[in-house]
Amino acid sequence: MTSRTRVMGVVNVTPDSFSDGGRPLDAAAAVAQARQLLADGADIIDVGGESTRPGAAPVAADEEVARVVPVILALRAESDAPISIDTMKPEVARAAIAAGATIWNDVTALRHAPDSLAVAAELGCEVVLMHMQGTPATMQQAPRYDDVVAEVTDFLAERAETAIAAGVRRERIWLDPGLGFGKHPVRHNLPLLANLDRIVGLGFPVLLGASRKQFVSAVAGPADAGDRLGGSLAAALAGAAAGVAAVRVHDVAPTVQALRVWAAIEAARSGSG
Ligand code: HH2
Questions:
Q1: How far is the CA of 51 from the centre of ligand 1 (A)?
Q2: Is the Cα torsion angle 40, 235, 23, 16 positive or negative in sign?
Q3: Ligand 1 centroid to residue 87 C-alpha, Å
Q4: Alpha helix positions (H), 40-147
Q5: Whole-angstrom Cα distance, residue 132 to residue 107?
Q6: Which atom of ligand 1 is nearest to the CA of 14?
Q7: pTM of the full predicted structure?
Q8: Residue 271 CB: number of other CB atoms within 10 A?
Q9: pLDDT tens, 69-116?
Q10: Ligand 1 centroid to residue 92 C-alpha, Å
């Protein structure tokens, strides 16, 4: 293992994110939450103003901008930590980058709008290209693959090359298998988690978002989203073992602790500890 797995802490400025149990967040509360995540050891803060939960109501771009920009401005004023904007809309990404975000986290891999690729190239920011089968509204109805690992890996490789051809710099690109986005909790998410090295092998930093997702309950028994920490940690460590660059999580402090202990064990194994 050459470099430490970084931790991206999630701040949802939405009334309906699955993982927050529908808790509404105003800008001040979101900034306070981000501050706590940074104190807990987060390396990156991911700010989102539209839920991608299956069946979630779409949010208009101006409403999304109004949710996220005040949070990004306030956070940028008090911290140098990288901020990512979790949006599929180029106009929201543009406003967020102008406010101080440096990463565009796009669950559609720059496919949502005709100008997504051009805007990403123009903004010059880092870009997370995530795999999703279908759209958030329909993606969990009947996800289907012949070979999920090959199809997700090939898709990500193709999107990276498309982004580069459109002018996005290679070194600014991250890839993400998109756990839970058009994937059966067990039949599709688990092979992806077991074969993350294939995606890492494409040569781009990989982001893994396993935190509080449905597969934890599918494997280990029913649990509310807020009660899936143990399984989320197991997945984060599987990611670290495969060499992902960062994990996107809601529970930053326990994740940082788990990754530190895991890294110390790895260092001891290789004799460098
Ligand atoms: N997962 C969610 C949202 N954004 N972005 C990336 N790159 N990877 C992910 O796995 C990912 C993501 C879903 O989680 P959450 O933000 O908690 O829920 P919601 O979309 O309902 O806000």
A1: 8
A2: positive
A3: 10
A4: 61-78, 90-99, 116-123
A5: 7
A6: 22
A7: 0.96
A8: 6
A9: 999 999 999 999 999 999 999 999 999 999 999 999 999 999 999 999
A10: 16
